[in-house]
Amino acid sequence: MAQKPSIPKGTRDFSPIEVAKRHYIIDTIKEQFQLFGFHPIETPSFENSDTLMGKYGEEGDRLIFKILNSGDYLKKVDDALYDSKDSTKMTSKISEKALRYDLTVPFARYVVQHQNEIDFPFKRYQIQPVWRADRPQKGRFREFFQCDADVVGSKSLWQEVDFIQLYDSVFSKLKLDGVTIKMNNRKILSGIAEVIGASDKLIDFTVALDKLDKIGEEGVKKEMLSKGISEDAITKVQPLFNFEGNTTEKINKLKDLLNSSEEGMQGVKELEFIVKAIQTIPLQCATLDLDVTLARGLNYYTGAIFEVAAPENVKMGSIGGGGRYDDLTGIFGLKNVSGVGVSFGLDRIYLVLEELDLFPETVAPVTKALFINFGEAEALYSLKAINKLRKEGILAELYPDATKMKKQMNYANKKGAKYVILAGDSELKNETFTVKNMESGTQNEMNFDELKALL
Amino acid sequence: MAQKPSIPKGTRDFSPIEVAKRHYIIDTIKEQFQLFGFHPIETPSFENSDTLMGKYGEEGDRLIFKILNSGDYLKKVDDALYDSKDSTKMTSKISEKALRYDLTVPFARYVVQHQNEIDFPFKRYQIQPVWRADRPQKGRFREFFQCDADVVGSKSLWQEVDFIQLYDSVFSKLKLDGVTIKMNNRKILSGIAEVIGASDKLIDFTVALDKLDKIGEEGVKKEMLSKGISEDAITKVQPLFNFEGNTTEKINKLKDLLNSSEEGMQGVKELEFIVKAIQTIPLQCATLDLDVTLARGLNYYTGAIFEVAAPENVKMGSIGGGGRYDDLTGIFGLKNVSGVGVSFGLDRIYLVLEELDLFPETVAPVTKALFINFGEAEALYSLKAINKLRKEGILAELYPDATKMKKQMNYANKKGAKYVILAGDSELKNETFTVKNMESGTQNEMNFDELKALL
Q: How many domains does one find in chain B?
């Protein structure tokens, strides 16, 4: 006997119930994307390597899955290079395509390639898998879906407001109360670094500050010192270490701290605009909070930065994130296209809904009526009824084989069928059906119209 | 300026309207799959190479996209092999994973791997992309979706009946009248070869017969002769060259032709069972026809063979196909699992619907109300209304920037917005909205409740 087959590490098979739950989340997100005026695009699973390489840093380049050229791919490699047996150099000769690593770079490529067909501002969403040759671990996969929505072609802050509303709408629809939408602004981080005279150390500073949760105030200060940030500077940012209060209070603190930095004050102004709008149009189930330690995608974001935290009672990393970027398409030669976007973390949202038992009972369609198979004539009689029921949108099925009753009932049970329908000799004669309610166990004989009405 | 980016040949970007149309088809198929009691599974985009290699013949092996191993993949290649510079031998050393080539082999792998979690008969559907390194040409892509439904674990012919009904239901929902579901049976082909004493030439015989459409009776006869099939044998199958009539007449002809072949008569019996059932439960929009020249997947199918032809007025190859196979999972060591399945050709169905103009006008969600942006206070006032409208499921949007009216109206036009809503100074004062019907051009001032009712 052949070895039991398996799948590559870091990948997953999804069973029917898992597919149903995943699509419940995806469909909910999609519905809200559409309601907010976003349009779907889809891009190929693999791109030309030069579209992807160099866009995610050195580490990213290593984690991109490369596709081997077809045919006699070694023939084109010149001997000198071949003799070096250098994997990195060989790759670019024997592989011209690579699996997409995220949806952002393909989106940028799409915008540039199709710029003449697009009406800006362009609101697009995209829900597709991406692949990363990451070391697999709990909750980290080599194939996973990203769900992104972006607007490009406008700098309006109303879009940030809209994205916060969008997050709130999606999580409301998923009945996931208590998420926190954490917001920061790249300009505030720059401003802080500026006022403490450490603009050249912005990255070191924010990387350290980002660890406040994990290593505490003393740990952060120690790291900052070790990176050459002065005691004096650290004293100036003391308010950040106990950055408490509601959003209005936090904004006032930031105004005090940053009043000497033009860029910092611009960041505060942007935050304030968004906060005030959200105060006027309150969220349904989420809370907007300011978090000055938030530094995700710092190389990338130029304005607002978002991160969504799961409800406090669930231990889980962020379930969404995003921000404003000023030059998405520059890498492909189209300058000055500002954009802002958010992403939903499908796998983590799945785990949260699972943990909080928030998937609706009806997430997967269930057989309403399973017809027992008693033989050829009876099956044909049943199939006629099934055909009519399906036209009414009722999920009805015939057990395919005229096997033992017990086996068929067992199957009905496992499929979770609500009703089992028996149509044997006498029912055929009477033009009726005997209907067994699988929950109560009661049985009733009825004609087709009564059956249809019941189901 | 960077070079304008592009995508690999044989792949496609899908614009919003294309995505909407594709998902209209996919969702219709999915809905019917579910109504017929099929459950979805999803498998990883790439499989271990040994799961795929050797399953599709030599040509298939060549067309499978292989993924390069990560890291210093050349290090593991021993010098002797490396020095041979043999691409084929190298591939198995530097690539362990490959993109799936179809959904059938991954499904077989899934069934074997998860056999203990599955209740048989297992009715699964799967709608995912597959990849083939085929030479791209009109209508043939390197990445495309397959939409498959299969039942494994039962030999019941009721399933063949159900699949014909399923085809009919899907095409009815798509309003695609006039498709023909062509059916044959592997046993009939074997039987014909048997009665003419050419059982050893079954493949040659069917390959020639399959060309009847293209090269005509004389061409087929010539090819058969050239393959060593005798004049005498060809005379015996003369009825196949003018195989006209309704399904009942055709079955009678086959009974005459095949009465000396046990296997052939078994095939006729199976066809007859299916035909009679479909006569009792008539199809809505499709026609079932027998086509003894149909020989698709002959290496594979063991019973019924299906192929769906587009309506006669459309020039298009088959838009679906399938059949019965007796040993799907044998390749992975699980014997005696009979299955039957069908597939829908998404790309071709798309082209047919496009040609016949059958996509509904509402295939893509359209902005119902675009609110003009007159500045901060007005935008906030509008956004409050938008927020309430969205809660009612109404697609409403704010133009993000307070730019020239003309630009905003232009955008509304391009987005196909039904109504443009103007809320300036006086509307804010009156707590009203001026609503412009973009079709009729009429304008009306109304309060929020009236607006909501209108939309």
A: 3
